[in-house]
User: Fold this.
Amino acid sequence: MKRKALSVSGILAGVLVFALFADAGEMTEIYSIARGGRLYDNWITTLKIKTPPKENHASYPATGKDKGASTWRCAKCHGWDYQGKDGVVNKNLRTWMGKDVAEVVTILRSPTHNYTPALLPDDAARDVALFLTRGVIESEKYIDPANGRSRGDAAKGAPFYQTICGICHGMDGRKINFGSDKDPEFIANEATEHPFEVLHKIRSGQPGQEMINLRTLPPEVAADILAYIQTFPVR
Ligand code: HEC
Ligand code: HEC
Assistant:
């Protein structure tokens, strides 16, 4: 009796293991959503495009402060909270959560956006649409828009930061300098000055750079890490 029970559970376990693993080299949906997040951030550096558009995007308002290729980045128009924060378009993209990927792709190919397949290939258009329809969060649940402070718990974020981020960024966040020797910029500067952008990058990774992303962990963990980084020195 016992043997039989064991073998049944053995088969069940086998089926489960089979179902949990994608074929080697076949990318999972969660991978594509994270890639979509990096494409939303900056599809030009994510795709390592050598000759990006030189002219401003036709839908970029003259009042915006960006110029050239940068005006083609989703985030520069639609913002880091997916509702226009630090962007220039007042439109709530969060309404697309749960909707059809193909519908978003159609919008990207339409004249308002003009992302032709030569600029944004089908797989990239699909991934950015996957991000918008499956991967967007309500950022203000995790960051207080009034003061930019993470609503997360810095003490809970510390072990995640030290075991996941610290190896590259240093235990006090000063190992990678994005600025210059004279005018250094560390993740603490970014986290205090642009918290919505940093939350996005923690969840999706840094376009074109060898950085991990935390897409497999709940957004609360990203908020806890953000809270911890906000305690770091900025100079
Ligand atoms: C130059 C500015 C600009 C850029 C860059 C841009 N958009 Fe838009 N987007 C707009 C404008 C303007 C609208 C509103 C059009 C309208 O109301 O008809 C819009 C509308 C949308 C909509 C439909 C919103 C709705 O509910 O009607 C989606 C989805 C969208 N954009 C996704 C993206 C994605 C994804 C990217 C990057 C691949 C992107 N956009 C890049 C300006 C931009
Ligand atoms: C494997 C190394 C690596 C790991 C691990 C890593 N990063 Fe990064 N990160 C990078 C690199 C490389 C850059 C880009 C540096 C540059 O642009 O000069 C970067 C950039 C950033 C930026 C700057 C974005 C900007 O606005 O320029 C932030 C914020 C950041 N990382 C946060 C994190 C956090 C938080 C973690 C842990 C969840 C993490 N990183 C883990 C390598 C890493």
About this structure: The domain at 140-229 is CATH 1.10.760.10 (Cytochrome Bc1 Complex; Chain D, domain 2).
